[in-house]
Amino acid sequence: MHQLLKDIYVVILAGGSGTRFWPLSRETCPKQMLQIVGEDTLLRQTVKRINGLVPPENIWIVTTEDMALNIRFHLESFGELAIKIKFIKEPIGKNTAPAIGLAAIHLNRLFPQSVMIVMPSDHAIPDREKFLSDLELAIQGAREDHLVTFGIKPGRPDTGYGYIKVQNASNIGRKGLYKVECFAEKPDLETAKKYLSDGRYYWNSGIFVWKTSKILSEIERYLPALYQTLKEIESLLFSSDQPNKPDQPSIPQSEIRNPRWSTLYANLEPISIDYGVMERSSNVLMVPATFEWSDLGSWAALDEIITKDDDGNIL
């Protein structure tokens, strides 16, 4: 049993539609709400994975207004745990940098000393204990003011993932934490083969750990327009006459909302946190993951994570 980390907040990104798993996934039942691998849906597996690491009220789900109620119903089987999970509701999905920034302004206002774990809701990670062990290492790096991500050691030259390159002899003093040299976009096949043979390239997992204050300062530096809008939104959300109080992000969707902040958010440029911040920052560390992982980006990805039968079939 892990000791509860009360200053750690897990932000689960659950706004995607997972259209690559059509026809099973669709607008009303996106990929994270499907049971693709394992004994439960991907979203419920994600919540189970971190439940017990942090208090239930430290689990925050970022999703869109349209999806929030369905996700709340989807988690009802968790009982008391589901009631304590908080929601941050985007008026419209605008990619990961705005979503993470929206969660960060809430957390920084309410819990300025907090550390954020940001994770997608639709990844497959079968070994919870290995994941939590790696996560503890990432948290140590984040507490020392670094942006930390996880790299997946590639088993083949894959053109479907972005890559992370680490520096040679780059262990900075803690075993398992490596300085990131650069991020690389999804390569062509020949480049992917070079990455595999090089040995310093890892698949980008899209899982991050950092101080809330640190990611906001990095957004301010590299995405100043986004930061300025987030600060305007923060002032509206925390105004004394705002009925949808940000420390109660799970109130019903029918609650009156401030149309001005919704308009501000809807006008944000959609940009990923990888492109907007991680690729530009010089303060990124990587933990080489010891856990098995797949982002289940397509039907073909099932081949990575599901055990085959004697005939080589996975379904």
Q: What name does the CATH topology carry?
A: Spore Coat Polysaccharide Biosynthesis Protein SpsA, Chain A
Total number of beta strands: 9
> Which geometry do the CA atoms define?
globular
Uncertain runs are: 21-26, 249-256
Query: Would you identify the CATH H-level superfamily?
Result: Spore Coat Polysaccharide Biosynthesis Protein SpsA, Chain A
| Spatial ordering of strands, largest sheet | 5-8-6-7-9
Indicate the mean pLDDT.
84
Structural account:
With 315 residues, the chain is an alpha/beta fold. The chain has one domain (8-303): Spore Coat Polysaccharide Biosynthesis Protein SpsA, Chain A. The protein has helices at 42-50, 65-74, 80-84, 96-110, 128-143, 189-198, 212-222, 224-237, 259-266, 273-278, 302-305; strands spanning 8-13, 59-64, 86-90, 115-120, 147-152, 163-171, 178-184, 201-211, 284-288. Strand 6 (163-171) and strand 7 (178-184) form a beta hairpin. Helix 4 (96-110) crosses helix 7 (212-222).
